[in-house]
Amino acid sequence: MALPLADTDTISTFDADGRVLAEDLISSLDVPGHDNSSMDGYAVRSADLATNDVLQVTQRIPAGSYGHALEPLAAARIFTGAPIPPGADTVVMQEDTEALTERASVRLLNVPKAGQWIRRQGEDVARGTVVLARGQQLSPAALGLAASIGFDQLQVTRPVRVALFSTGDELVMPGDVAPADMLPGAIYNSNRFFLRAMLKRLGCEVTDLGIVPDRLDATVQALAVASLQHDLILTSGGVSVGEEDHIKPAVQTLGELKLWQLAIKPGKPFAYGRIQSSSANPFAHFIGLPGNPVSSFVTFMLLVRPFVLKLLGVTQVEPHAMTAVAQFSWPKADKRREFLRVRQLAGGGLALFENQSSGVLTSAVWGDGLVDNPPGQTIAPGDEVRYIPFSALLS
Amino acid sequence: MALPLADTDTISTFDADGRVLAEDLISSLDVPGHDNSSMDGYAVRSADLATNDVLQVTQRIPAGSYGHALEPLAAARIFTGAPIPPGADTVVMQEDTEALTERASVRLLNVPKAGQWIRRQGEDVARGTVVLARGQQLSPAALGLAASIGFDQLQVTRPVRVALFSTGDELVMPGDVAPADMLPGAIYNSNRFFLRAMLKRLGCEVTDLGIVPDRLDATVQALAVASLQHDLILTSGGVSVGEEDHIKPAVQTLGELKLWQLAIKPGKPFAYGRIQSSSANPFAHFIGLPGNPVSSFVTFMLLVRPFVLKLLGVTQVEPHAMTAVAQFSWPKADKRREFLRVRQLAGGGLALFENQSSGVLTSAVWGDGLVDNPPGQTIAPGDEVRYIPFSALLS
């Protein structure tokens, strides 16, 4: 459904954290380039050590320089990262030596294993290896790995352009009305804040169209505007079956609507569609999230996040789940698959936030992850459950 | 050792993802502000339902508006989020009703439980509650929660200013020399890339001073410049005991050096100090990381991250660790506490990256976390181990 975007950007490796590779990175060198020392110490010939514990120090090889062939019964003073000179096959740690006669010779206090303290050529990366593959989301370590084989620029997919709006005449922006002046039935728009932040964490370029009035014409107009320059239109609210919910008829006016009949809780009201656009864009994807803050928060993580990652060309979009032990009871099974807000306890296991109502955003702040509970399943203390940390769902 | 910075910024709640609260946020309202419907349907008096299954529809309450007192034997058409009118005590879901005579009356197909489908005033947040506490790092959900009680601006600690440089004459910047032209012993600087990315993920303002030559005078000069406008000077390389390692004497020239004698692997060479500054800053913290990429990467996550979070005033700096099952052998115990690069398997449990050498950055890309293995401990398949996912260590 979500085909990767075709456009790519070429950017500095320094700026590529979180971006998605649009090319395979193939190493044109071995890392390390040569056998080198992993310690400060002395490079020696192991054959000499059977009979001698004092060696002449005939050369000095700092990191970044290169020695010459090591003579028999000689040692090369060597530093971490410096290439092993020809003839040497072992490094003796500085801590296992005693310098003699103003460092002209050295006594070996321990006989090392042959081959010790040497990092081998190509041990990290062998020439010709695909070091990072197209479709991989770049982490800080991946940037370091790309740099270590000489890539100062990377080809990545361009950011997903998202238009965001909320519907609901009850919504008020914080700052516009003071808490003491809030009318009955009015609530502050909170979804707009976390949805924007979560989209930005996914690297999206977000156009925030604000709050759209609960009228069909206004909703159609907002969708039409949003479809022009965006890959994805994301809305919150207005997707229930009520007469005040104009999102679905508005999408049907401009394109096609497909409901994702997802039996999940929170998050039942949820819509997907496509909106035709007169611009160069063939169409914009549409995702309508529920208006309840927790439903909106959870469905974003479970459904919008993988959708955006697919648009970016990411091959691995599933969050890392793990097995954890419940330290709580969930005695009442639901026919839907439930996502419970939980927190890891210092002593191990998971605690449940008392109020699992979908209006209660405190659960998403108090918690550090979700338990993915299958339909019809109760939970007793000590049961193993499927746990997905928020940290795996927010980038 | 790391006292929180005193300065704060007041910023839009929209821009506060990842920042750290410098104030307690106290709610001056109840959320929800009134009892309201959690469904589209009809608000009714539960006492009526014992004898009647058809009620007159006498009012219509969309979200954002407010009804009037509900008469006996009447129902109010109500939408999700709208306030429950006085007199009503229960909501019947639309799906459980049948509209009659052009919606002038409604038949109830199921008798609901009294009190059903109502979100209670203050259920999410009670007036006067500390909703978010000073020292909390703000997540997307926390921004939503702050907005839900009317905060459009937040007081947060200012970013940590970090000066970053690498030492090592063997280091070459990618882009400066093509892979085919690399001299023996030369390696690309990779640490600079992941250290910058990790500092940015922590919200730091980074001044990148590049690669400093392996000379004492150059190192002293770089530290002196860095100490002027920064809270923290972070270096990689040059902290071993070798003669080519000038970081420690340079720090001692300008301030005081304290070694953190940490028996961890990777990451043994590690230094902490303070450098006096002639500016308004009383001093700059100094942290010297090892030059090996994996050592640098791991010690950043284990030691620099919590240090920066403490400077930001974060109260909870420990990463979330969890218990997981090893699907590998680690037959050789080390006297140091080891941090092994591992990856979660689809079927559960952890796999080990074959090459745990500290020069091998591929382990940090292949892996998705660390096993924290105590000194002297071997691991057999099936053993429970302490696992820390990278996702918990990178923000």
Sheet/helix structural class of chain A: alpha+beta
What coarse outline of chain A follows from CA principal-axis ratios?
elongated
By DSSP (H or I, 4+ residues per run), the number of helices of chain A equals 6
Helix content of chain A: 10-25%
Radius of gyration of chain A: 30 Å
Number of strands of chain A: 26
Largest sheet of chain A: 6 strands, mixed
Task: Output the strand order for the largest sheet of chain A.
Answer: 7-4-6-5-9-8
Quaternary state of this entry equals homodimer
List unreliable stretches of 5+ residues of chain A.
none
> What is the mean predicted local confidence, pLDDT of chain A?
91
Largest interface: chains, residues each: A-B, 109 and 109 residues
Relative strand content of chain A: 25-35%
Terminal CA distance of chain A reads 21 Å
